[in-house]
């Protein structure tokens, strides 16, 4: 099934990112340094701005620094491929960043007494972690799991758009985005588990 953020859009972003990646590599910047910098930027946007109710600034900062997820991967590919530690660091920092984003959103919604939104944010946090875990566990068992309607980029885009709209006065947008994201995240977990189950069945038959 095609992902929300289509492959063609990703390819377009890659064409923009590649010149930046080359410049950074020539300057001696490592992909791991970009990974850590991106995570720090997301933490600043989420905890320093989003959690305090500055939703437009927070969403913009998080979006800009979340795009380093494309940048560090492109840099790793250009420099000969990702190392095992680089892949581990990237995955770990993604979980840190995601936790900060949804934790900040849940905190701000709690200060606004929007407990339905808080519940949605917590479901997104748990389901998002499960989406990543199911893939990692499947790959650890020697199977593939590159399926799902909403991966990390899609999830951040959905919550980012909701935050921006709420920040400019469309009050219910963030809560709507969170419940939509909760639904597609849970659906993605189901897709991935079904995909792995079918692979496991084929292996059992063979």
Describe the structure.
By secondary structure, the chain is mostly helical. The protein has one domain (1-204): CDP-alcohol phosphotransferase transmembrane (TM) domain (Four Helix Bundle (Hemerythrin (Met), subunit A), Up-down Bundle), CATH 1.20.120. It has helices at 7-26, 31-49, 55-66, 68-78, 84-111, 115-140, 152-167, 173-205. Helix 5 (84-111) runs antiparallel to helix 6 (115-140). The radius of gyration is 18 Å and the shape is globular.
List the helices and strands and how they pair.
Blueprint (H helix, E strand, L loop, with lengths): L6 H20 L4 H19 L5 H12 L1 H11 L5 H28 L3 H26 L11 H16 L5 H33 L1
Helix pairs in contact: 1-4, 2-3, 2-4, 2-5, 3-7, 5-6, 6-8, 7-8
Main location: membrane
Cofactor: Mg(2+)
Membrane topology: Multi-pass membrane protein
CATH superfamily: CDP-alcohol phosphotransferase transmembrane (TM) domain
SSE order, one letter for each helix or strand: HHHHHHHH
Percent of residues in helical segments? over 70%
Total individual domains: 1
Distance N to C terminus = 26 Å
Binding site for Mg(2+) 2: 69, 90, 94
Active site: 94 (proton acceptor)
Family: Belongs to the CDP-alcohol phosphatidyltransferase class-I family.
Subcellular location: Cell membrane
Pick out its properties.
206 residues; mainly alpha; Four Helix Bundle (Hemerythrin (Met), subunit A); 8 helices; 0% strand; globular; magnesium; lipid metabolism; transmembrane; phospholipid metabolism; EC 2.7.8.-
